[in-house]
Design goal:
- The structure is a single chain.
- By secondary structure, the chain is mostly helical.
- It has one domain.
- It contains eleven helices and no strands.
Amino acid sequence: MIEYIFSIINNITLIIELYGYIIILLLMMIESSFIPFPSEIIMIPAGYLASKGSLDISLVILSGVLGSILGASLNYFLAKIFCLKSLQKLGKYFFISNKRLIKVISFFDKHDTVSTSFGRLIPGIRQYISFAAGFSNMNFNKFLFFTFLGSSIWVSILSYIGFVFGNNQELIHTNLKQITLLTCLITASFLLIYVLLYRLRSKRFD
């Protein structure tokens, strides 16, 4: 299993080295839309290539963020075009969990701003957040701003992990799950603090 993961990461690294920023943008666009796969296997290798001098770290981050925004915007407009029932029927063809989608929409209705931003940092959730924003008719400029904010944080973290540990690929490969888990825990902590403050404020005004 580990060798299989190494093979995938190595192949993606070669593809990114060959095609550069445009493939980073395209892969992150796909990752952020309705065909989810781990962004770690895109941005960490891209950061590694930047540490070698093959790419520029600033352009790596810019490409990743732009791709994330494009993919998120695609989901946003799909939700605006299709009703929830239609998307639920189509979801099985695009790995969209109806149960998770309903839960995310419910959470979004209470915490639209924070979920749009911090939801981008949570694997398996970021795609659904964009659907929820579209269904809720969130202002598109507002959606773009908070999507940019969340994507910038996530993409930068992953890129700099690859950049800083660029000379030790083995360390990155063997600790990929731990790196992702740590990032998610940090994000969850911020999210928990927000929810607690939100509830305290709600009780104060009741």
